[in-house]
Amino acid sequence: MNRLRQFWNYAAKVFDLPSLLALIRSHRPEAVIPTAALSASLFLAAVLRVPSRLQLESETRRKGWQRVIGWLRRISDDAFAYALERFNLEDVRAVLVHINQTLKRNKALDSAKIGGLLIVALDGNEQFKSRARCCPACCQRQIKVSDDSGQIVEVTEYYHRQVYAQLHGPNLSTILDLEAIRPGEDEAAAALRLLGRMRRLYGPRFFDVVTVDAWYATGPFVKAVQRLGWGVVSVLKQERYEIYQEATALTRDQAPHHHQWEDRAVQLWEARDLSFTDAAIGPMRVVLAEEQWRQARRVGGCKIVEDKQSSWRWLASRELDGYPAQAIWQIGHQRWGVENHAFNELTQHYHLEHCPHHEPVAIRHRGETTDELVRQPFR
Q: pTM for the full model?
C-alpha cells in the first residue's frame, strides 16, 4: 500500500486528482458513503486492473486503501452498483477534460504532434455482447446459431458499441472522450455528437485534425467536421467514388516521392484539387502510398523472413493543403494507435469487455474511468 500512497500523492501534486474526484456528484438520496470515496475507489480499481466489483469490495477492506480514499469501512459490491447508476456523468467528464488539459499545458502531448498538428483518431469498438441480458441502451442484431439439436435458428443478440476519440503519440496515448452508439444509429452520427461535445468542452483549438476509417468517408461527415473547425484525413476505399478513379488516373504517370519509415520503404503519390460529393466541402487531396518491408515469423520452430507490401489511399480536406504528402501519410497511420494502443491494451489488461454492471449510466461511467483516466503517464 506504500506504492499506492506514493501514486496517490503524485496524482494529487500534478493533477490535483483527489480534489477533482471530490467534485463528482451522484443522485443518491440520504447517501451514507461519500461519493468522493466511491469515485476514488473506482479510479484506483481501474488503475490497478481490479477485474470485478467483488474483488473491489475485498480491496476496500484494506487499511491502506481506506486511508487513501478517506472512508475507514468496507464498501460492498452492491453499494458500488447502486452508486454507478447514479453518478453525474458530466462531473466525471469534467475531471477527464481537466486532466487532459493539464497534460497539454505540461507539454506532455507535444511528442504526438505531426508537423505541429495534434491528431485525434476516431474509431468504434464493441465493448461486450449478450444473448440473455439487455438494457434500454442496448443495440440489437439478429444472428444465426446452432441450437442443441444442431438446427440453425435466429436469435437476438444485444451489444454495446462506443466511438472513442484518442490522441496517440510515441510517448503517450490518451483517450479524450467516448460516445455510445444508440440503438438504430450509425457510427458516424455518434462520432459527430462526440466531436460536438469535445469542441464545447476542450475548445476548437485543443487539437487540429481528425483521422478516421473509410466508414466515415462521406460528404456529410467531412462537411460537419469542417464546420466544427478541424481538418479531416480519411482512409479512401470506395472505388465507386469519382475521386478514387480520378486519383488513380492522375497519378498513373507521376514519379513517386520516396522515404524510409522505420523498416518500411514508402512511395507516395498525390492528386490535388479534386471534387468530392459536395461543392461546399471544397477541393480535396488524395495521397496514395505503397509500403514494402520484411517481416519475420516462426513456422514449425523455424524463423522465416517474408517480404510484405501494403497499399493505402487517404483523403485529405483543404485545411491540410499546406502540408506535404508525407505528413498526410503520417496522419493517416495515426489512426492505428486507437486500435493498437487503446482497444487492444484496454481489452487485454483492463477488462474492457467485462461488464460489471449492465445499466446505461454504469456502463458509461465505468468505460470513461477505465478508458481515459488509466491511460495517463502517472500510472
A: 0.88
